[in-house]
Amino acid sequence: MPSSSRRTFAIISHPDAGKTTLTEKLLYFGGAIHLAGEVKARGANRRARSDWMKIEQQRGISVTSSVMTFEREGVTFNLLDTPGHEDFSEDTYRTLTAVDSAVMVIDAARGIEAQTRKLFEVCRLRSVPIITFVNKVDREGRSPFELLDEIADVLALDVSPMSWPVGLGSDFQGVLDLATGRLSRPEGDSRTFQGKVEDAPALPENIAEEIELAQAGYAEFDVDAYRNGDLTPVYFGSALKDFGPAELIDALARHAPPPRPQPAEPAPIAPDNAEVTGFVFKVQANMDPQHRDRIAFMRLCSGTFKRGMKLTPTGHGKPIAVHSPILFFAQNREVADEAFPGDIIGIPNHGTLRVGDTLSERADVRFTGLPNFAPEILRRVALKDPTKTKQLRKALDDMAEEGVTQVFYPEIGSNWIIGVVGQLQLEVLLSRLEAEYKVDAGLEPAPFDTARWVSAEDAADLKAFTDLNRSAMARDRDGNPVFLAKTAWEVGYVADRYPKVKFAATRER
Question: Is residue 205 domain-shared with residue 170, that is, in the same domain?
Fold first, then answer.
């Protein structure tokens, strides 16, 4: 079955660990691009190919998930590049629902950092197996033993080193493949890997002792333990200097799982199910600003998708014909005539599809596990040109649909309130309002600090609560009632006073 040759994976890391550089090199070694320029090199044609938004190019960071598909030696790779910045954890969380495995990038000098740990926990919740890539070993860093022990202790995983750095920083002499005993050496002024490989090299005595200790002291690689999420194979390398990316692709092809069953109601959906099913984990507007397009990213979970077939979204139950499904290479795209479980296809639409929607042939299934999170920062939107109210509402609805922000419409007052998880999301919001919608707006402090979705088994209890607290009530873009609180303490206080009302920090999409 073609799905057995699919490897759908994400790359996760803390900011500045080198994730975007590694992404670019994987594409380069996978034959998807012919120029692997530094991420922050000058010139538009040398920017990271997966960072296409204006603010991403200005700052040299990824703030939206990109999808890139490429083939190598009969295996189709679907690479999902996620934002490393913690302010975009919602987008990353939803992306991780669409993958079957992940590559965790760690800086050799800094080890496991806060955001890496958070993202790992999300992977653990969904039993997503992880390959670890320790990056930047050509620079001064911590000892390999210290890094391996930290991964084992902090993440409670068995570790299995698959390669070993011969020297670090100024003493860097290459990377040894522990399975074959071959050493990849740096060459030239740039000290990059240019294909020079030594079989059974003579290693310094201290390095030979290190390797002997590592092979005796850490677990042997076991593919079942890896796929169960109990063990992580660890590769050492330098994405910038081309040590490791090719080996990483080979490891994903050999060891990473093909498409797995996906959680759904009434029962999980296996990839060999004959009916076509999938779910939307991301919506992106204006990837092509000249065409004001709107693309829903769908993870195909079962069946063989054919161009032009009709699928029914859970959102409204009316079948839609998918005439122009898209396969992605970052911003570039091509029409897909067919797709298989594990593939990510883009469906152009005009607001019909939303994050969390299930698409299926018979509309009798719903995929689960894509929640909204309560925002941690609330702001009022101040429009500088009152004639642009309509454009502002369209823009805010678009970005709420994408998951960039959440929008709340207060029951009293006309100032719409924006909710985000992190501060950088606000900068992205203002940048995109101006660049894509030509709306000049500012943000003002809101009299609230957090939000909770409210519900009750008895409609009368909910009505009594909302009537008494109208000044703190709002609706989200779906019309669900939301309680806006001045502090987290107030949430607890009000919840105690109204035991029949449920205050939820997450809401299933």
Answer: yes
